[in-house]
Amino acid sequence: MNTPVDKKGFAQICIVVADIEAAAKGWADLFGIEMPQIQKRHLEGNEQYTYRGKPVSCDLLVADIEMPGFVIELHQPAGGESSFQEFLDKHGNGVHHIGFEVGGKRDTIIEGLAAEGYNTNRTLGIYPGSSWTIVDAEDRLGVNLNIKPVR
């Protein structure tokens, strides 16, 4: 690939779970920390959130566990079509994606991944101050990629 992903940009691991309460409690017990706060997030289907190329709306329950230099994100689909629900239906609990912050190279990296044959049309999200693209890399890398400029 002409513009490789810099390993220093590793920022997150996202684990999709069927029961976020149990998962959050398990991680908190493992690390000896307080249980992370669980938030409900709504992704509105418009030009700022698409799944497989079309606007869709969905809800997620999310809990973040801050680690040194990265975050473990727990996601439980809570209604609507999404990459997260697709993953849970197909695999059950598991690592949905690993995320990389790539700064201003984001578009070039996405274009390079598309040229290499990766499906870069899996999910696109735009939020204040940043954006993210879930790249379908399960078959080739064993996990999806989340490419974003910043967290």
What would CATH call the homologous superfamily? 2,3-Dihydroxybiphenyl 1,2-Dioxygenase, domain 1
Count of beta strands? 10
Query: How many structural domains in the coordinates?
Result: 1
Q: Helical segment tally?
A: 4
Question: What would you note in describing this structure?
Answer:
The chain has 151 residues and is an alpha+beta fold. The protein has one domain: 2,3-Dihydroxybiphenyl 1,2-Dioxygenase, domain 1. The protein is 23% helix and 42% strand. It has four helices and ten strands, in the order E-H-E-E-E-E-E-H-E-H-E-E-H-E. The protein has helices spanning 20-31, 83-91, 106-115, 138-141; strands spanning 10-16, 39-43, 49-51, 54-55, 58-67, 70-77, 94-101, 119-127, 130-136, 144-148. It has a ten-stranded mixed β-sheet with strand order 2-5-6-1-7-10-9-8-3-4. The longest helix is centred in the N-terminal third of the chain and has 12 residues, at 20-31. The protein is globular, with a radius of gyration of 15 Å.
Quick synopsis:
Helices cover 23% and strands 42% of the residues. It has four helices and ten strands, in the order βαβββββαβαββαβ.
List the helices and strands and how they pair.
Blueprint: E1 10-16, H1 20-31, E2 39-43, E3 49-51, E4 54-55, E5 58-67, E6 70-77, H2 83-91, E7 94-101, H3 106-115, E8 119-127, E9 130-136, H4 138-141, E10 144-148
Parallel strand pairs: 1-6, 7-10
Antiparallel strand pairs: 1-7, 2-5, 3-4, 3-8, 5-6, 8-9, 9-10
